[in-house]
Structures are given as C-alpha cells and as structure tokens.
C-alpha cells in the first residue's frame, strides 16, 4: 500500500544533498550527514518529498567510492538514535526494501 504524496520535513541543507552531485554521497556529504545525525535535536525519522528517511537513503545502492562499511556506520548511527525501521516511503517501501533492491548483484 502506498502513501499519499508528502511534504518533506528534512532541512533544506540535508535534502539538497541528493541534488548537488551525480553521486549523492560524496565525502563532504557524508560528513554533513554524520554531523546531522549526531545532533541531539535531529529528527532521525524526518523524510524527503517522497517519504524517504535518511535510513532509506543510506540503504540504497552503493555508489562508487562509498564503502559499504560507511553506509553501515551511518545506518547504525541512525538506528541507535531511534530511526524507525518500519517507516514506509510513499511507495510503501521500508529501508530494508530499498537495501534489497539497490544492493542486489549486478546493480
């Protein structure tokens, strides 16, 4: 079951990471995300305009130059801060769906 269109509530400087580079997670972006996640006031279940949380973002396809260990580290930080593993985006996908689809062999 898909969710209706949503108005994202991620801060603009975080939401723009997706649109500023052909590889969404450059080293600079990772530092920004780590700092954002570490901030005690951060809503780790905030989402973008498609209902995707940061956990969805880091669960997606691994980009060239981005070690899987880095994505695992970010996911662990989000989960430790209370990220909801059952949060569905507007298509009804959880971060686990995103991980399974985006990291399959040959992708």
Mind explaining what this structure looks like?
The protein is mainly alpha-helical. It has one domain (12-102): Ankyrin repeat-containing domain (Serine Threonine Protein Phosphatase 5, Tetratricopeptide repeat, Alpha Horseshoe). 40% of the residues lie in helices and 0% in strands. It is built from five helices and no strands. The radius of gyration is 13 Å and the shape is globular. Residues 1-5 have low confidence and may be disordered.
Average pLDDT, rounded to a whole number, is: 79
Helix fraction bin = 40-55%
Strand content: under 5%
Helix-strand pattern, N to C? HHHHH
CATH hierarchy, class: Mainly Alpha
- Describe the biggest sheet? none
CATH superfamily: Ankyrin repeat-containing domain
Might you state the CATH topology name?
A: Serine Threonine Protein Phosphatase 5, Tetratricopeptide repeat
Global outline? globular
* Poorly predicted parts: 1-5
Number of domains: 1
């Amino acid at each position: 079951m898909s969710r209706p269109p949503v108005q994202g509530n991620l801060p603009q400087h975080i939401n723009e990471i997706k649109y500023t580079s052909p590889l969404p997670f450059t080293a600079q972006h990772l530092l920004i995300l780590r700092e954002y996640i570490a901030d005690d006031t951060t809503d780790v279940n905030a989402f973008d305009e498609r209902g995707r949380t940061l956990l969805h973002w880091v669960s997606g396809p691994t980009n060239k130059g981005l070690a899987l260990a880095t994505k695992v580290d970010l996911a662990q930080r989000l989960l430790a801060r209370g990220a909801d593993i059952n949060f569905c985006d507007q298509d009804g996908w959880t971060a686990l769906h995103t991980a399974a689809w985006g990291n399959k062999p040959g992708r």
